[in-house]
Give the backbone structure.
Amino acid sequence: MSVREENGKRRFASVPPRGISKDEAAEYCGCETKAAFDTWVHKGIVPGPIPGTNRWDRKAIDFALDRASNLATEADKRNPLEEWLAAQAGRRSK
């Protein structure tokens, strides 16, 4: 596992961070400016930062972009609460 320096901090090159900065999130999404990324967040295309932080969750961005591109399955489109409610409704109908 190699180590690299970034902004004076050591990072393991083989382990990409899950929590990424706004600049990294914008670049990851292909937005050329932070303003464009802010527009995507405002429109709900991608989620905002993890509550209480200034970091974005890479997996949450992937999930949101999959939904926006119609790549998610119907099961993927439901959130965990909806999944639980559907399971409960199925148990009651038996």
